[in-house]
Amino acid sequence: MRKFVFILLIIFSISVVNANDNPKRAKQLKSDIAAAKAAIKNAVDMEKNDNAAKNKLAALEKNENTIRKYILQNEYKDREDLHLLLIELIWKQYEVGNNKMYLKQQTDTAWYVKTGRRLFLEIESFDSLDSRVDAKGVSTPSYRKKHAETYAPYIGNIQKGGIYFLHHKDWSEAWNCFDMYLDSRKWPVFASVKRDTTNDTQTAYYAILAANNLNNLEKAKKYAEEALTYKPRYENALILLSNLSIEKGDTTLYIDYIKRGFKNFTKSEYFFPRLIDYYTAKGEYDIAENYVDEALRADSTYSLFLLAKHSVLMSKEKYDDALRYAYLLKEHGDSQSILDYNMGYIYYIKAQQALKQPGKNLRLRMKDAQKYYKFLLPYMERYRSAVPEDREKWYPVLYDAYLNLNMGKEFNALKN
Questions:
Q1: Are the beta carbons of 250 and 220 closer than 8 angstroms?
Q2: Residues 173-195: what's their mean pLDDT?
Q3: What digits encode the pLDDT tens for the residues 10-38?
Q4: Whole-angstrom distance, CA of residue 48 vs CA of residue 370
Q5: What is the 3-class SS of the chain, one letter each residue?
Q6: What is the pLDDT of residues 234-253, one digit of tens each?
Q7: I need a labelling partner for 13 at 20 to 30 A (CA). Which of 30, 58, 225, 231 fits?
Q8: What is the rounded average pLDDT of the residues 74-97?
Q9: What is the pLDDT of residue 136?
Q10: pTM reported for the whole predicted model
Q11: What is the mean pLDDT of the chain?
Q12: Would you state the pLDDT for residue 334?
C-alpha cells in the first residue's frame, strides 16, 4: 500500500511540474517570437558601416539562433509560424549582403554565401512541411509560389559562392554550394521556375573537382556523368574520376573511366598506359594487345604505342616480333634503357636456345650461341652503364656472355 501511494505521489509531482513548466515555456516562446519580430522590424539602414547597423545585424543572428533551437525540438519542429519567422530572419541578413554588393561596399563574401545556404536550406525544409498531405490526400502548399518568386532569383549566387570557395581552396564549402545549386533543380519549391541551365555542366565539373580534393568518391559520383558532358574539361574530369576511383579501390569504375578516356583521347599519355598496365598486370595479354593494335591503327608511328606493343610481345614471349618492334623504336630515336635490356635479353634467350638445338654437335651449337652472345653485348653493356644498380638483371647475362666468348679480361672485371 505504501509503495502504491509513493508511486501516486511521484506521478502527481511530475504532473504539477509539467503544469507549471508549460505555461512558463509558452511565455518564453511568446517573448522570443516578439523579440525576433522586433529584430526584423528594426532591420533597416543596415548597409551603413556603423555600430547601429552592426547591432541590428547581431540581433538578427541572435534571434535566428534562438528560433532555430525551438525548431530542433520535437515539440516545435512542425510549427509553420516558427519556420516562416526563421526564413524572414535569415532573409533580412541576406539582404544586407545583397545591398552591399549592389552598392559595391566591402562585404564578407564567405559570410554572405553561408547565409544564403542557410536561407535556401530553410526554404526547402519549410516547403516539405508546407506540402504535407491532408486527410483527403491533397497537398496544397500555400507558400510555394510566393517563395519561388521571392527567392529563386538568388539561387545562382550559391553557384557563384561555390566558385569563390573553390578559389580559396575551401573544398568542403565549395562542394556544399555546388551540391545545393545542382540539387535545388529537383526541389518542388522551384519546380515552376524556369532556370538558366547554361552553366550546369560546368558546375557539375566544379563539384567533382571539390569532391576530388575532399577525397570523396561518393560525392564525385553524384554529378560525375553530368560533369563528363562539360566538353572543355572532359579529359581532366575523366582523369580526376579515374584517380579517385582507383585510390578508393573501385576497380570497375576505374577501368570504365580509363576505357572512355582511351576511346576519346587515344594518344593521351594518361589513359593508354594505364589501360595496358591494367590488363598486363592481370596476365590478360591478349586483351592488352588488342588495345595496343587499336591504338596503332590510329597512329602506327607513335613511340608510346610501339613500346606498348613491344612490351606486350615480351610478356607473351614472342621474342622475334618483340625484337622487330624494338628496332623500330630505335629507328624512331627511342633511347630508353629498358629497350637495351630487352634486346640484350632476347639475344640471350636465343643463345640459350642455340645451345640446346637438337641434331647439332656441341661445336656448331656453340658457334650459333656465340653469334647471339656477340649481338647482346652492346645492348646489355649499355644497360649496365645506364642502370648500374640493377645488377640482378645485367650481371647473369654478361657473366654468361663473357664466359662463352672467352672474354677473360671482361669476365674477371665483372666478377670484381
A1: no
A2: 96
A3: 333 433 334 345 788 889 999 999 999 99
A4: 94
A5: CHHHHHHHHHHHHHHHHHHHHHHHHHHHHHHHHHHHHHHHHCCCCCCCCCHHHHHHHHHHHHHHHHHHHHHCCCCCCCCHHHHHHHHHHHHHHHHHHHHHHHCCCCCCHHHHHHHHHHHHHHHHHHHHHHCCCCCCCCCCCCCHHHHHHHHHHHCHHHHHHHHHHHHCCCHHHHHHHHHHHHHHHHCHHHCCCCCCCCCHHHHHHHHHHHHHHCCCHHHHHHCHHHHCCCHHHHHHHHHHHHHHHHHCCCHHHHHHHHHHHHHHCCCCCCHHHHHHHHHHHCCCHHHHHHHHHHHHHHCCCCHHHHHHHHHHHHHCCCHHHHHHHHHHHHHCCCCCHHHHHHHHHHHHHHHHHHHCCCCCCHHHHHHHHHHHHHHHHHHHHHHHHHCCCCHHHHHHHHHHHHHHCCCHHHHHHHHC
A6: 999 999 999 999 999 999 99
A7: 30
A8: 94
A9: 67
A10: 0.85
A11: 91
A12: 85
By CB neighbour count within 10 A (0-12 exposed, 13-18 middle, 19+ buried), where does 37 fall? middle
Q: How far apart are the first and last CA of the chain?
A: 104
Query: Cβ-count burial of 381 within 10 angstroms (0-12 exposed, 13-18 middle, 19+ buried)?
Result: middle
Q: What's at 401, amino acid-wise?
A: A
